[in-house]
Task: inverse folding
């Protein structure tokens, strides 16, 4: 039994988000709590322009993971062997971008979407996320890299590429070759491949990438696109389809949770069914997620337990008193359907599982990411970069691990390329049909 780290509402704000936010086109690497990090004064930063500086940063990354990683067995990986393998490559790197690619290849061997590293230029702010893009969002659909969104007013939107088209080459390399080159192996897991596809156009802002794609009628086209920084606001949205309220939450932050709780009573006025769309929710602040869960579940419901490598643990529960102020805000009992996808990850998976098991909500879509670990504090690197390390494992209230497993939908409905071309949302239609009949 791990000692209880707190009997109160919380002892830390845990970061529960993954690179799956990448899969919905938001970030080039990976979302969203009050995690803390202490950054060094610029005058004390080391330079990765020298082999000595690169090795100092490399050693800091390797040692921090060795000391803090939630699993002392490193998920079956020989962590010392990884140091021996990647350290010489880090020393030889010709620039900062190449050096950080070496770090990412080493970290990728853990097969953990939460543990990741950011260069000084990327300086990722969970509250105001920005990301590098070429104006395209790519996802693994039917086993192939498919465009699911073209950013409005981007250079990509001026080409002939459309949502539903298939990416076939990047810089004159086939996608398979490009991914194998980036990951350092042709044999990779499905989740690693999906993340690599989502991050297909990663690279320094301002640089060019040649993109080749196949259109709906089988013609091959190509264009040269420039990478650029973009920014997007986290939030939620709602719409009505007759008596059915369709609620989409992008990520869990305290601001989103508070605004959502305030607007929910008015949004649900006269509603007879709710569709909660978590398909593009990559997680966020554990407490914010619990606050949202409290709008659908009674107070004191166990949402699971987090434990670090020492056995110290923390239980997450619904807590209505934090947000609710009036009787109008009591937990809604309206019939509920939850939409999930492979992009539903981390805190969003915890919510989906809790609603499925505790509230008997119907889940429609595809298996969730299976990426449910937690970060306690961000670690500042000697060059000004940032390292996130998974320090907490998670188990549901029934003791089940979601990491590597995910939440299974009650009704599976994967997206297809034809759906993308026709803008046909079959999962949402199934949800509305189910609630209408119910």
Result:
């Amino acid at each position: 039994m791990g000692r209880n780290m707190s009997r109160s509402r919380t002892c830390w704000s845990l970061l529960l988000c993954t690179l799956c936010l990448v899969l919905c086109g938001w970030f080039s690497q990976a979302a969203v709590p009050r995690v803390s990090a202490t950054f060094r004064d610029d005058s004390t930063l080391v330079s990765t322009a020298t082999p000595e500086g690169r090795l100092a940063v490399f050693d800091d990354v390797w040692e921090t993971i060795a000391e803090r990683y939630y699993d002392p067995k490193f998920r079956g990986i020989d962590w010392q062997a990884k140091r021996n393998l990647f350290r010489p490559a880090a020393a030889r790197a010709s620039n900062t971008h190449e050096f950080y690619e070496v770090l990412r290849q080493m970290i990728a061997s853990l097969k953990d979407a939460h543990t990741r590293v950011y260069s000084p230029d990327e300086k990722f702010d969970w509250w105001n996320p920005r990301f590098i893009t070429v104006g395209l969002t790519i996802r693994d659909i039917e086993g192939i890299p498919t465009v699911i969104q073209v950013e409005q007013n981007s250079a990509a939107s001026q080409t002939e590429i459309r949502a539903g088209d298939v990416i076939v080459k990047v810089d004159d390399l086939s996608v398979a070759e490009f991914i194998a080159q980036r990951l350092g192996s042709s044999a990779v897991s499905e989740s690693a491949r999906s993340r690599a596809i989502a991050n297909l156009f990663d690279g320094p802002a301002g640089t060019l990438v040649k993109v080749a794609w196949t259109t709906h009628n089988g013609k091959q086209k190509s264009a040269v696109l420039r990478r650029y920084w973009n920014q997007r606001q986290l939030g939620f949205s709602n719409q009505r389809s007759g008596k059915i309220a369709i609620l989409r939450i992008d990520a869990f932050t305290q601001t989103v949770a508070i605004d959502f709780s305030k607007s929910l009573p008015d949004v649900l006025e006269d509603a007879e069914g709710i569709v909660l769309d978590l398909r593009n929710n990559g997680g966020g602040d554990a407490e914010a997620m619990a606050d949202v869960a409290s709008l659908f579940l009674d107070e004191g419901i166990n949402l699971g337990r987090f434990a670090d490598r020492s056995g110290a643990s923390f239980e997450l529960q619904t807590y209505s008193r934090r947000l609710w102020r009036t009787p109008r805000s009591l937990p809604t009992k309206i019939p509920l359907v939850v939409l999930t996808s492979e992009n539903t990850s981390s805190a969003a998976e915890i919510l989906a599982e809790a609603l499925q098991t505790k509230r008997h909500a119907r889940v429609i879509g595809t298996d969730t990411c299976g990426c449910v670990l937690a970060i306690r504090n961000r670690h500042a690197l000697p060059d000004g970069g940032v390292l996130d390390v998974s320090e907490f494992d998670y188990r549901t209230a029934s003791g089940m691990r979601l990491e590597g497993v995910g939440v299974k939908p009650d009704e599976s409905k994967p997206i297809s390329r034809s759906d993308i071309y026709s803008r046909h949302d079959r999962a949402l239609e199934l949800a509305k049909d189910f609630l209408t009949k119910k």
Confidence is low (pLDDT under 50) at residues 1-12, 19-39.
